[in-house]
Amino acid sequence: MTAEHFVFRLQATDGGARAGTYCTPHGALSTPVFAPVGTLGTVKAVSPRDLIDVGASLVLANTYHLYLRPGDGLIRDLGGLHAFMGWEGPILTDSGGFQVWSLGSNSQVSDDGVTFRSHLDGSLHQFTPERSIAIQQNLGADIIMCFDELADPDDYAYSQVALERTHRWAERCLAAWKTGDSQALFGIVQGGIFDDLRQASARTLAAMDFPGYAIGGLSVGESKEEMYHTLEVVTPLLPANKPRYLMGVGTIEDLIHGVSRGIDIFDCVLPTRIARHGAALTQSGQINIRNAQYERDDRPLDPQCDCYACQHFTRAYIRHLSKSNEILASTLLSIHNLRTLIRLTEEMRAAIVDGSFQSYAAETLGRLKAVSP
RNA sequence: GUGGAUGUAGCUCAACGGCAGAGCGCCGCACUGUGGAUGCGGUGGUUGAGGGUUCAAGUCCCUUCAUCCACC
């Protein structure tokens, strides 16, 4: 049984797109897969039962936030994150590297690690690669991530400095990682939007033989063309028999472009965040359910959708809930948006298996463009 | 019927006789390894009506209407 864990089986390819399975101690992932984000050990507004209903198989939780509150030791003592949050499927934890960068100004980076102030109470803390791995071991996710350093994507000089540090930290994470049977450690390719740095990063990390590889530092302000180009540069240099995870992406469009360039795993806050702000993803693009035009609209959010929200409620009703700041609006829109992205991954997988991925991708992108400005 | 109070944006209310404003609502936009069900922008006026004083009136004076309160 243990031997099966963290084996990535490639089942079909279509152009650059891949369909596979990845075994974890809490179940197998069918790729391509989209992971809802549950930063604080909960996907906001959505219960684990709802997650099963929308077809979610992997959930992301966050090291930085859970370390600060309620504390990784507490979660370990209560049986680990799966038991704590009532989710029996696979979990992936971020390393905290992204928060240190995005919460930015009150942190200081050295070769040893990062000292930062808590956004909750201003207290001083330090993350090192070893500390990040120890916290992630306490949390007990199936997939854990190397502690990395991000740079602004168009700053070459600093991207180079951060990249070299990220590679040294990757070695230290590997050395600290002692849970190979129960947790897979993924390396993270960095290098901004610079081909030479990205290639160097992919080669360096591939040589370290991680169980899986992530591509980080994208969808942080660079153009879509730059992001897609970077994927084309990086994925051919990663081992074909290991899963590839594009961090923090994304949109319907980005998922299609990512899969076509060989990405297997995605996570993103977008579907649940925009849901709480009143937006629904549809086949033809994003709609703002709060707009006056939906006041008397008795259609579902997306007539093509098979989710609970679309099977039972009208746009008019969900608009009313959203305008009234009712909790159920966030829940229904989150369920719908998650189902939309997860169904997209399911359809892409089916298309890859039967060799029709190119036409599926073109058709789906075409529908989006038909309405986008 | 008598006395008093109040009438300003859709709502609640500001504005010394000197460019009529705020909050909320409404309308829209944004959100990509989630601190912040958030952030940003926009629309919105015969200052109840009519007259007068004044260089200038939401503001002072007169008339009128409406609403509320108290007392007959």
Q: What structural class should be given to the helix and strand makeup?
A: alpha/beta
Termini gap: 51 Å
Number of strands: 16
What does the average pLDDT come to?
Answer: 93
Cα Rg: 20 Å
Largest sheet: 8 strands, parallel
Strand order of the largest sheet: 4-14-13-12-11-10-6-5
Proportion in helices: 40-55%
Uncertain stretches of 5 or more adjacent residues: none
Count of helical regions: 15
What does this structure look like?
With 373 residues, the protein is an alpha/beta fold. 42% of the residues lie in helices and 19% in strands. It contains 15 helices and 16 strands. The strands form 4 sheets. The chain has an 8-stranded parallel sheet with strand order 4-14-13-12-11-10-6-5. The protein has a 3-stranded antiparallel sheet with strand order 1-2-3. A 3-stranded antiparallel sheet has the order 7-8-9. Strand 11, helix 8 (195-207) and strand 12 (212-215) form a beta-alpha-beta unit. The model has no long low-confidence stretch (mean pLDDT 93). It binds one RNA strand of 72 nucleotides through residues 37-40, 44-45, 60, 62, 65, 68, 92, 94-95, 97-99, 102-103, 118-120, 145, 148, 150, 188, 214, 216-220, 245-251, 254, 266-279, 288, 290-292, 322, 325, 327, 329-330.
